[in-house]
Design brief:
heterodimer; A: 232 residues; mainly alpha; 10 helices; B: 303 residues; alpha/beta; six-stranded mixed β-sheet; four-stranded antiparallel β-sheet; 13 strands; elongated
């Protein structure tokens, strides 16, 4: 039954237009990586992975798919067909999360790792990119899946979080930056490559553990929410 | 089988359902009321999609809001047209069968689709379906697990007359099998076809309940306002009052009067006779509030 839900969610979120647009974003990354390749600047490859991959591609792609997976069913009124079934709520959320993971990990992970390799900055950067991308996707996907259930305009709210909170407020100080997933993914990359970024000072293993815990906690919240919310 | 005790539901300042109490058993029960009367909200409360702000709902003796196991015995056909657009009709109904953990979901889905006369081998996505076909797909989705309590919110909208008859026949069969079938509608004629028990909901309140014939009589007995044009109107007006055919007459102009009557049948029989007796030429008789809205308004005010 979880498999049936998983298949349903996968089919509803994996729309061709969405996949093409966001797959294109990954290809842009690969193109930039080729341009970075010749650069003499220290840590150019890591800066690119951080500035483009971790700041833009990872959160935006996670937002688009994760906020839609349950959020869209709530918006268009199809949630009722699942909600009224004698299915444990955690199964619905788990199936939705798995469907999102199935889409976003290949869609984001492959082009970013390929791009990291193409910069020619070595194995450390490739490993750092892979781990940072994975923990980032876990945290953002969980968070935005819950957000999709919680608010109506989840895409706008999610973008505001990425641009205003993570991009602006979180840079103001240590406490605020601890509340931005970006500083954890950045710390992972920094630890792997030795590159220096601002606000990349979360110690290992916390930089890996915290985002994963955040993602799972958000899924638990989504389960709780699904059981108690009103359904149209 | 379905019991509501003093159920109210409000959203902020808006009261959608107000102090509704009833108890329905096996068979078809129609929930009749104009658009915006609170029928959909009431049905959502009955299915547990939202908790009542006040009062208590019991379905088969259990709480529909919190009892996950109860959902094996309950089904809802929601009002909205939306379905999972990417699925075809067999996949859509099969999904319900799988989520209900039926032993043979495929056979169950085909059986349910046969009930509503949809082709299970139609491979087109439901996105391409007309409103009527979607409506039937939703009914099949709801019936696949053989529920005991079936709640249908405006299931006849978008169906053509033949499909309507077929659907009504299906509801009656389900009711005759001992299931509790609650069907909402804002169309009086539809409800008349169900020939069943009726709950009349207006302005969020239970305005009347009972056998359909009783409700219809109640509706026929209500006072009716009629505009009559006659020449000269004054002569007819005085005759109407003298004979007690009208409880009130207002002279609008030389040729027009507005008549309030509480016996429509008698008024209809008498108006032409009285006009002739009064030496007036009858030009036109128009009922002013002979629509469903005014029927409901009357039923609410009567209480």
């Amino acid at each position: 039954m979880t498999v049936a839900l998983y298949r349903l969610f996968l089919r509803t979120i994996a729309r061709r237009g969405r996949l093409a647009a966001l797959g294109g974003l990954g290809l842009v990354g690969v193109a930039i990586a080729l341009a970075v390749r010749g650069s003499d600047e220290a840590d150019a490859g890591a800066s690119f992975v951080n500035g483009f991959g971790l700041v833009v591609v990872v959160p935006v792609v996670a937002l688009v798919f994760a906020s839609a997976v349950l959020g869209d069913t709530q918006e268009d009124g199809t949630l009722v067909y699942l909600w009224l079934k004698p299915v444990a709520r955690w199964r619905i959320v788990a199936a939705a999360a798995l469907a999102v993971a199935t889409v976003v990990f290949p869609l984001v992970g492959v082009p970013l790792v390929v791009a990291a390799a193409l910069t020619g900055d070595g194995a450390d950067l490739i490993v750092g990119t892979a781990v940072a991308t994975a923990v980032g996707l876990a945290a953002y996907s969980g968070l935005f899946l819950w957000l999709g259930l919680r608010v109506r305009r989840s895409l706008a709210v999610g973008l505001a979080y990425i641009l205003i909170w993570e991009g602006f407020v979180a840079r103001a100080g240590d406490t605020a930056s601890r509340l931005a997933i970006r500083s954890y993914t950045r710390s992972v990359l920094s630890a792997a490559t030795g590159a220096e970024f601002e606000l990349a000072d979360v110690a290992q293993p916390w930089a890996v553990v915290v985002p994963i815990v955040v993602g799972l906690a958000a899924l638990a919240l989504a389960t709780f929410r699904l059981g108690r919310q009103d359904v149209a | 089988m379905v019991v509501a005790e003093g159920v109210s539901k409000w959203f902020g300042d808006l009261v959608a359902v107000s102090e509704v109490s009833f108890s329905v058993g096996p068979g078809v029960t129609a929930v009749l009321g104009p658009n915006g009367a609170g029928k959909s909200t009431l049905m959502r409360v009955l299915c547990g999609l939202t908790a009542p702000s006040q009062g208590r709902v019991r379905v088969l003796g259990r709480n529909p809001r919190t009892d996950l196991g109860l959902r094996r015995h309950v089904a809802l056909v929601p009002q909205q047209d939306s379905v999972f657009e990417v699925l075809n009709v067999l996949e859509f109904v099969r999904l319900a069968a799988v989520l209900e953990e039926l032993p043979d979901p495929d056979a169950a889905a085909r059986r349910a689709l046969a009930l509503v006369e949809l082709d299970p081998d139609d491979r087109r996505p439901i996105a391409t379906y007309s409103k009527g076909m979607r409506q039937r797909a939703k009914v099949a989705h709801a019936l696949v697990h053989d529920p005991t309590v079936i709640v249908l919110d405006e299931p006849l909208t978008g169906l053509d007359p033949r499909q309507r008859l077929h659907m009504i026949d299906l509801f009656q069969r389900l009711g005759a099998e001992g299931r509790c079938v609650l069907v909402s509608s804002h169309v009086l004629e539809e409800v008349e076809r169900f020939g069943s028990r009726v709950l009349v909901i207006a302005q969020g309140r239970l305005a009347a309940q009972g056998d359909f014939r009783a409700i219809r009589d109640l509706m026929n007995d209500r006072p009716l306002r009629v505009r009559v044009r006659a020449e000269p109107a004054r002569a007819l007006a005085s005759r109407l009052v003298e004979t007690g055919c009208a409880v009130g007459v207002r002279l609008e102009d030389d040729r027009t009067i507005t008549v309030d009557t509480d016996d429509v049948q008698r008024f209809r029989r008498q108006v032409a006779v009285l006009a002739r007796e009064g030496g007036a030429r009858l030009l036109e008789v128009v009922p002013l509030d002979d629509d469903l809205e005014s029927v409901f308004r009357y039923l609410v005010e009567r209480r």
